[in-house]
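$ run holo --ligand "magnesium ion" --emit tokens
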Amino acid sequence: MTNEEIWKTVLGEMELMTSRANFITWFKNTQIVDKNNATLIISVPNIFVKEWLENKFNKNILQSVRNHCPEVKQINYVIGIPLPPPSKKPTPSYEVFLEHQTREGNDFFIDVDKDTNLNKRYTFESFVVGPNNELAHAASLAISKNLGKIYNPLFIYGGVGLGKTHLLQATGNQVIKNQKVKALYIPSERLVADIVSTIQNRTIEDLKYKYSQIDILIVDDIQFIAGKTATQDIFFSIFNTLYNKSKQIVLSSDRSPKSIPALEERLRSRFEGGMLTDIGIPDLETRLAILKSKCKEKKAQVSEKVLNYIAANIQKNIRELEGALNKIIAMQQISNMELGIGESEKLLNSYLNAPYKRVNSQDIMKVVADFYGLPVQDIIKRSRKKEVVRPRQIVMFLLREETKASFPEIGSKIGGRDHSTVMHAYEKIKKEEQENEITKQELVLIKERVYNQ
Ligand code: ADP
Ligand code: MG
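-- output --
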């Protein structure tokens, strides 16, 4: 029997001898810490428990223990720190951070309701209103209360990462929360793909019927419909059906209808026929408010100074703003402390509009060698030892990725190796980067050092 098993059995027997409340009071957080033949050592959380067990329960405990381990002659109780319960949440690492990052622009497939395609994460409550999006926000809110009656279509346009998708989805979520209506959110690439496949399968009428049943149709990034004649035809027909039934249509685009090239004139004039509003770049105050709201959402503590620093330096894209914040939060969790302005500056170096830092091959070799605890010469030398081979492959990979050197160039820098060796190393690490979490994490950490040393 293991110590743990012995103690479990003993506890089982003790439990039968006392009341439940007593049992919990005196036996909670106890465990066997050592057993050497005649003596069993039990750790207890405090002096009260120690005395109580020694004076009141020792005989019973000893007896119970001896039923299973007759060699034990005495028990010592020591006050010890109970082991922390195994943590359910693994230490967040760069993996988590990276995973989050890659999700950002592409979370269409995550937490998504399969009937509406809406993601609950996006709500009006979590949308910070500032002068840049005030009008778009007000219009969205208004239509959500009065579908198809006020602005139809509502067309929201603006640059990447400024909150169009958030607002569109918030509108959809708000509508289905309060009313029994059919909503559908669809990125236009998906719409195009759907239409193309119905053309191939000759099921256009089914598709048209499906869309005609919707009360609010939200098409994100409609600019991608440009130039696709058959798709525009069918979309025009869907649009008209809904419009004529006073069903709500909401569209977003990265630019105004006028600036979408190869958009059929009849669609353009439809798009302009309702409410046209843009989302601009948020001012400093709004950026700061967004950061604070995200901190709250993520239940993370980041100092005011650091938030100010991020808000001041990342201006044009809220997705990046959030990405930078995530990076700070991940680092704080890894290091278990609040970051100061200096560390944040370093950490965000690659994000900020800092002039592009050119790295040279020496830097990369040195950082990788340090990272794996090897002398730099070992990277270049002709050793085939396993602990050298992989770091060397990482160096080749990074030289290719970060300095854009050619394979033969890299080969000659690393001890005159053949370009096919370099190519092989590059492919291998590239694949690992995509498939192996640990490699991914190592590469992030190494690059951080290369760029921030
Ligand atoms: P777009 O569709 O315009 O490219 P998104 O709607 O995807 O931009 O926004 C990018 C990220 O920024 C999302 O995580 C979104 O939640 C966040 N975001 C954008 N605007 C706001 C805002 N006003 N308040 C809170 N978060 C915002
Ligand atoms: Mg979007």
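-- notes --
The two ends are 53 Å apart (CA to CA).
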